[in-house]
């Protein structure tokens, strides 16, 4: 028993050690992306990442061009779709704004539902996906974080942001799925939703939208103006022309909207 305890202790110690190393490495990469590091190693890594950013730029531009020329199809769902998103990595207040819009729509007598990808949520295992494919089983339905009355999933299964939305909003279903078209159809069929709010959906071109809102943090709008992985841009600045409206503001401002303490 004592040997087993020692082994467990050693394993936990090693796991913590590797986790600390990973966190340090992730912080170093973030510093390179934001140009906070000026060391020789950071400059070399930044130079190595530039060609990859160029390849990523070509892929992003080609994808958007295919949708614009209708060689790839954006699916309509027969209801209003409001997209809340950005063109950079990191937080710009998307989730609080999605919550604010849902509350506003409720006061207007609409039936909104929030659709989220569920970043970092616990998904279906590869084994189960393979088994379902092998047996030709029907697709797994989207995860319902909230049906508008009660919370049905915890933050581990739903993801932090969808869980926060479900916790703060009453009368608004919150649904999580990587396939936002499937999630949207589910919301319309089960809950009778007539407005869908896509949280962090600016890059999701498969679903046709009515209104596209882009949020930009004025304190650090575009980082070093490079695309991933050299910078924080998910798309080139020219792609802002897809937006119906653009908001430059601080993240704290949108947090105030959520709590109702900001000025209109």
Which terms would index this structure?
Rossmann fold; 264 residues; alpha/beta; 7-stranded mixed beta sheet
What do you see in this structure?
- 45% of the residues lie in helices and 13% in strands.
- With 264 residues, the protein is of the alpha/beta class.
- It has two domains: 2-67; 74-259, 3-Layer(aba) Sandwich (Rossmann fold), CATH 3.40.50.
- The protein has a seven-stranded mixed β-sheet, sandwiched between helices.
- Helix 1 (2-33) packs across helix 2, helix 3 (94-107) packs parallel to helix 6 and helix 3 (94-107) packs parallel to helix 8 (251-259).
- The longest helix has 32 residues, at 2-33.
- It is globular, with a radius of gyration of 21 Å.
Name of the top-level CATH class of the largest domain: Alpha Beta
The global form is globular
CATH architecture of the largest domain: 3-Layer(aba) Sandwich
How would a crystallographer describe the biggest sheet? 7 strands, mixed
How are the strands ordered across the major sheet?
Answer: 3-4-2-5-1-6-7
Rg (CA only)? 21 Å
- Quaternary structure annotation: single chain
Task: Quote the CATH topology of the largest domain.
Answer: Rossmann fold
Distinct helical segment count: 8
Brief digest:
The chain is α/β, with parallel strands linked by helices.
Helices, strands, pairings?
Layout: H1 2-33, H2 40-68, E1 80-85, H3 94-107, E2 112-116, H4 126-134, E3 143-146, H5 155-158, H6 160-168, E4 174-176, H7 180-191, E5 195-199, E6 211-217, E7 245-249, H8 251-259
Parallel strand pairs: 1-5, 1-6, 2-4, 2-5, 6-7
Antiparallel strand pairs: 3-4
């Amino acid at each position: 028993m004592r040997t087993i305890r020692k082994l467990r202790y050693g394993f936990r110690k090693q796991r913590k050690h590797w986790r600390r190393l990973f966190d340090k490495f992730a912080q170093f990469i973030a510093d390179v992306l934001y140009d906070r590091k000026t060391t020789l190693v950071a400059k070399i890594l930044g130079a190595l990442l530039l060609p990859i950013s160029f390849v990523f730029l070509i892929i992003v531009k080609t994808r958007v061009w295919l949708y614009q020329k209708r060689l790839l199809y954006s699916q309509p769902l027969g209801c209003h779709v409001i997209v809340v998103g950005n063109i950079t990595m990191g937080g710009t207040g998307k989730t609080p704004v999605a919550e604010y819009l849902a509350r506003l729509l409720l006061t207007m007598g609409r039936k909104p539902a929030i659709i989220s990808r569920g970043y970092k949520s616990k998904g279906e295992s590869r084994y189960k996906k393979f088994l379902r494919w092998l047996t030709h089983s029907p697709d797994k339905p989207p995860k319902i974080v909230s049906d508008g009355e009660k919370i049905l999933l915890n933050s581990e299964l739903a993801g932090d942001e969808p869980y926060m939305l479900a916790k703060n909003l009453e009368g608004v279903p919150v649904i999580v799925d990587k396939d936002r078209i499937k999630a949207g159809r589910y919301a319309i069929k089960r809950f009778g939703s007539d407005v869908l709010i896509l949280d962090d959906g600016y890059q999701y071109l498969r679903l046709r939208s009515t209104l596209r809102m882009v949020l930009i943090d004025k304190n650090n709008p575009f980082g070093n103006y490079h695309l991933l992985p050299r910078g924080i841009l998910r798309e080139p600045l020219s792609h802002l022309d897809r937006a119906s409206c653009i908001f430059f503001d601080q993240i704290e401002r949108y947090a105030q909207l959520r709590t109702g303490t900001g000025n209109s």
